[in-house]
Specification:
There is one protein chain. The chain is mostly beta strands. It has one domain (24-170). It has no helices and 9 strands. The protein has strands at 15-16, 29-40, 50-72, 75-95, 103-116, 119-120, 123-124, 136-149, 154-167. A hairpin with a 4-residue loop joins strand 8 and strand 9. The chain is elongated. The N and C termini lie close together (10 Å).
Length: 181
């Protein structure tokens, strides 16, 4: 059975391969982030002949709430936003036309940040002032990863992440300690 990392707010256990919601998981709140751009083979590594494989890991650096203001029907409302920051680490394994060593590897570290707001009837609102983030677990799901070689040293990447919160009370008993399940 393949184990999937279960993200948790404990800073010592905040790196893994991601966790996508399964049919029985309750997604309390979520946001999506698109990461695009280029990854370049660093010097002195040789040029790419063929892309062999790609790997990834996700690291949550910080999850916090910030105070915010919103205006609804010309009335000022105070509340909170959830802000998540982290790194998406993309590892690229490739072959080079080099007799001494054919297979090479390098990593691109792509920072990301997202904010999460509750959505009601397709309208985003602030969390209430008494919202407690510690009652939730932050998950990151890699929904899509596209990697195309555009030159001997350059790759184009498009990564879609779903960052979601799950209330701790909704987590199956085996996963409440932020371990693999």
């Amino acid at each position: 059975m393949k184990k999937t990392f279960f993200f948790c707010p404990n800073p010592k256990k905040n790196i893994g391969f991601g966790y996508c919601p399964r049919p029985h998981d309750h997604v309390s709140y979520y946001s999506q982030v698109v990461l695009n751009g280029h990854c370049e083979i660093p010097e002195p590594k040789p040029d790419c002949e063929t892309l062999i494989d790609k790997y990834h890991s996700i690291e949550i650096l910080k999850s916090e709430t910030i105070d915010a203001i919103q205006y609804l029907d010309c009335h000022r409302v105070q509340g909170k936003k959830v802000v998540i920051t982290g790194n998406f680490k993309l590892g690229i394994e490739y072959s080079a036309n080099e007799p001494s060593q054919k297979v090479h590897y390098f990593e691109c570290i792509i920072p990301f940040s997202a904010f999460i707001l509750p959505c009601i009837d397709n309208q985003e609102f602030l969390f209430p002032q008494d919202f407690v983030l510690d009652e939730y677990v932050v998950h990151v799901c890699m929904e899509d990863l596209q990697l195309d070689r555009i030159s001997d040293r350059l790759f184009n990447k498009v990564i879609v992440l779903m960052i979601w919160l799950q209330q701790k009370n909704d987590i199956p008993e085996g996963g409440k300690d932020c371990e693999f399940y």
